Amino acid sequence: MDLDHNSVVAFSKSWGLFYLIALAVGVVVYTFWPSNRKRFNQAKNSILGEDDKPWK
Amino acid sequence: MIRQLTSSERQNAAVIAIAVAIVGLAMAAVGRTDVLGVHGVMVMLFAGAVLFYVLSGLYQPEPTEDRETSYYDDPIKVGIVLSMAWAVFGMFMGVWVAAQLAWPNLAFDAGWSSFGRLRPTHTTGVIFGFGGNALIATSFHVVQRTSRARLAGQLSPWFVLLGYNLFCLLAVSGYLIGVTQSKEYAEAEWYADIWLVIVWVTYFILYLRTIARRKEPHIYVANWYFMAFILVVAILHIVNNLALPISWGHAKSYTVWPGVQDAMVQWWYGHNAVAFFLTAGFLGMLYYYLPVRAQRPIFSYRLSILSFWGITFFYMWAGSHHLHYTALPHWVQTLGMTFSVMLLVPSWASAGNALLTLNGAWHRVRDDATLRFMMAAAVFYGISTFEGSFLAIRPVNSLSHYTDWTVGHVHAGALGWVALITFGSLYTLVPSLWKRERMYSAALVEVHFWLAIAGTLIYVFAMWNSGIIQGLMWRTYTEEGALAYSFVDSLVAMYPYYIARAFGGLLFLIGAVVGCYNIWMTVRSAPLAAPLNADVPIAPAVAGE
Fold first, then answer.
1. Is the confidence at residue B487, as pLDDT, over 80?
2. Which keywords belong to this entry (chain A) (predicted)?
3. Chain A closest CA to B533's CA: distance in Å?
């Protein structure tokens, strides 16, 4: 297959679609994975801590 | 500041300064009377000033305390000062060029002060000078606090900050002398671009190494935005600036991209500069400083993750909407249009997330102008992203393109979103960084807020009116099928709006000057006798696993 305009277009119109959908599914799964809930809740409260020193 | 460095670090700083000065000397030698030679001398002076400072402090006492027990705040403080200085410069240039459009005599018949040369000093001054320094400073602050670790380097933060400002100086002075690559937001020539690559890669490595040292198990979402900003800007900058200089001794270069590919690469760069420089990085500020100021966690952490990936993947494809009705293939235009419309979802997710975080704390928004800065920024973010999606639709673009509507849209984003979130973040950051209880004057923050809001609204409404009138006049035909208005007719119609726009920009500039004064007086005021919360134990309930 030579790399002319039409073949590049065909590639990006087909595989481009699939990998973007796969990425979107991956992100949604990661976001709503039940065991991540605790980690996210901790993270969003962590920035409200009052100490201003690095941890050991 | 030099007291924070050990003597071997001071020696390394001197070596780097000498190396940069030698590069400057080489540029001056091969460039001679070309702009490259002028810039070589500038590089030498800059490096010489740094070298003088380092050498004059070479034998000061070394730091005795364990530096790892405190955050590294000196580069952040300098970054804030530089950011505000660039804000005043860049906004002044903006007011000047705006006034030139209404009163062309303000160019004073000189080459360096003509509109075409001053305009990029405005865009570079505000985007890269003001915005870039604010991003570097706040990212250094956020990454340390959210990782509970000190920056992973003593010298590299200074290299990033000072090196970046050297790039800005080379860029802005170059425009005044008359060099440009003719690429919007990437006007600086090849040698400055190479220098920025070195600085930016150092920045990314420093950020990654700091994250790697984190004591928090999870990387807080603001860091994701900052990392996307640093990484993608590096990619954009390198690809768009691939160019061949006409000789090593000459500032002029030509891009490697031909014709319509060049246009596509440029607007892939241009729109992603808006996306990752002016949006992702500032969303990093939003997701940290807004919850901290409101003392409430972000409304939905999950939503912030979804909108992060949405913005990252959608924005990449949106650039071609700048090239509707051009030689660019039709399907590429349609692709850009489609992704631009879809972008509304993650954009409004972020804006909504910010506003819902404030839900239940509206009394604080009413009383605290700093928090109100950030609230207004989220509202303008929502408005301008809606407008952006709308303008990217091809038939709408046929009316708006090349008119002042685009300029109004950019400034709704740049003034209303980027600048307001920056001022809100800086007013949160400055008292805590300099260990003051609060800003010097809450009333002056209030004054700044209303000047900024009034200036933005006047600006944006003037440009909406002007742009739509302009677009309609350009497409009005007589019954015979000839154009009804000449270009000069449309210029005459725009005159009052140009005056209004310059006035709105002036209000915004005055607000920034008030902010500078307030920050300066805060720094000068007496620090707290005892640091806040010095007595609380270090390990709170959510300590690392």
1. yes
2. Membrane, Transmembrane, Transmembrane helix
3. 7
